[in-house]
Amino acid sequence: MRLDSKYFDRIRTRRKREQEAEQAPPTCQWDGCDKKGSHRAPVGRNAEGQFFLFCFEHVKEYNKGYNYFSGLSDGEIARYQKEAITGHRPTWTVGVNKAAKDSPLHSEVRSGAYTRVRDPFGFVKEGGGKGSGPRFPQARKLKSLESKAFDTMGLHANATSAEIKSRYKELVKKHHPDANGGDRGSEERFRAVIQAYQLLKQNGFC
């Protein structure tokens, strides 16, 4: 391709433009100051993200007298500091979650004592008042081992925790080998009572 070709003129690169003069830095916003404002200072409360531009001397002067809480009462300052702990996000007190509060204990679920029937007025509980009756509903769905444990201790399925403990003490005292002269039959009965009580205790009946 010849240097004087029309095609050569079309692909010839243009000369680089001279770099534009750098923009002059902003002037200090302090009244009567014409120095370069290269230091940022916060505008104040309710103007987050906005800044003044000062020179080094005036930004120091501004920061000495800066008070974010200017104009607020002591109560408002205390509330702001409390809300700042959670990042000013809403919080709830422990126990507000009613579903978790009314959920059954793990032992109740395992033993089958918990039912999903809602009882807001406490008709299922003895006495009809909150906390006045046993912890379990009157109708218990027992597993085979649990039913056998109640039979071993001579108790009905609706026995309260106090009744179970009282019956256990009575049977242990009655069938203890020392109280029966080492009778073999009484010793086996003694072991059976202990095992039955431990099973009921592990499953949350007492």
From TrEMBL:
GO terms for molecular function: DNA binding. Residues 148-205 form the J domain. Residues 1-35 are annotated as: Disordered. It comes from the Bacteria. PROSITE patterns: DNAJ_2. Residues 1-11 have a biased composition (Basic and acidic residues). InterPro entries: Apopto_cytoskel_mod, DnaJ_domain, J_dom_sf. Keywords: Chaperone, DNA-binding. CDD domains: DnaJ. This is Curved DNA-binding protein CbpA. It comes from Rhizobium pisi.
